[in-house]
Amino acid sequence: MSSDTDDLLPGILLFAEKAVPLLVQADPDESEGQSFFTRLKFVSETCLLLYAVIRTEDRELAARALDIGQSLAPHARRPEILAWVHFRPHLLAELTVAHYCLKKIGVEDPIFDHQLNVFAQMTSVGARERVPWKDLEDGWHRALGAPSPDVDIPAALKRTAISQVQDALFASREDGYAFTHALIYATDFGHQQLPDNLDKDAIIRDAASLLARCLEEDDFDLGAEALMAWPLMKMPLDSLANFALDLFETLTRTIGILPSMSLRNDEYQELSAEAATRYFFKEGYHTAYVMGLLLAAMRTPNARQLAVEGPLPQSCNTARRLYDLLPERFPQRQWEVHFNALNSAQQAALTPLIAEIFVRRTVKSADYEGLRTGLEIFLASGHVFHRGVEQSVELLGRMTVAARGDADGISNYPSVDRVSEIFGAIGR
């Protein structure tokens, strides 16, 4: 299941080249204020992609990225941006990401720089109180060149999602974004090592559960960000990660971009040719760019490698057994189409992925008897497990204690480090 993605990043740059002339123009269906921020978001994310591409040190791609950057310069430094910074100095860094990304790739504007530096002297330039990963982002802005107030990054890092074990069963999508964004900014998109006190293996376990959740939801935007955990931390791609990469590659080649959740074929078909083209680029660019950032991260030193995994446990049919027990879901998820096209050995290697999806789908449908049955099958197989499996066992334990009315029972409960023992304490 190896993926050869070398030709995909040039295709994403081609997408950006075509998107720029369309999306830097005001959308007639939006108000003036809404249109300003819609266009600024597109320009900022495009410039971020260009910066990531140029850092891959591919000369041909760098030349193309530089050309796109030069065409975006007037839009990254519009008078309206200065007007907003004039009235809201604390937004300086967030409003000028495009400018500083362009400056990093050699597209400079000393006059615009000087004006921003003047605004940075205002007493109201300090960032407002924010969630921890936003502090990491602000530190990244400062490293990029923005004249932002200094941030205590080590203190902020301790409060981010990557410093805590994540809730694999009930976390919100926003919780997932907090996890991926913290990792992205803490590693400078794969160009900086994490502090030694962070447990990379624990982070990968959380990333694996989040990635499984995203595959189950056809959420390829957040899924591509979750998959970035492996190259960002220089961790070898295991079977789960490589399966996701292969799926994202297949979808990109089939559709032209990695599809977003907001890109709907029924809406697309109802539009005129001109409106449909704009819709495709407007709704599709963000997830396409996330795929580009993932591919750029894969090109950082020591990032693109496959894990050397040991022999599979003897119970090689566990993945198929769990899959057959899954509650049906319509329409069928893309991961299922991809999984069913694999041979039995390839499916067996994905047993931990199927287990994660199984526990999530059964918990969501409140089928706790089915959850117990599937967990017993999986844990007996001897495969490694990720957070969703671990926390599902804990959930069944809590439910059992609650049903017995034994408030002190949890104190005598087997440790999750010996997860299979828990079933000895759970009654049907």
What does this entry look like structurally?
Helices cover 62% and strands 0% of the residues. The protein has two domains: 8-298; 318-424, no CATH class. It has 428 residues and is mainly alpha-helical. Helix 8 packs parallel to helix 10 and helix 20 (351-364) packs antiparallel against helix 21. The longest helix is centred in the C-terminal third of the chain and has 26 residues, at 273-298. The chain starts with 7 loop residues before the first helix and ends in a 24-residue tail after the last helix.
Please tag this protein with its features.
single chain; disordered C terminus; 2 domains; 428 residues; mainly alpha
Largest sheet: none
Provide the structure class: mainly alpha
- Whole-number mean pLDDT: 90
Give the DSSP E fraction (strand runs of 2 or more residues). Answer: under 5%
Shape: globular
Proportion of residues in helical segments = 55-70%
H/I helix tally: 22
Distance between the termini: 40 Å
Number of strands: 0
Nearest-angstrom radius of gyration?
A: 23 Å
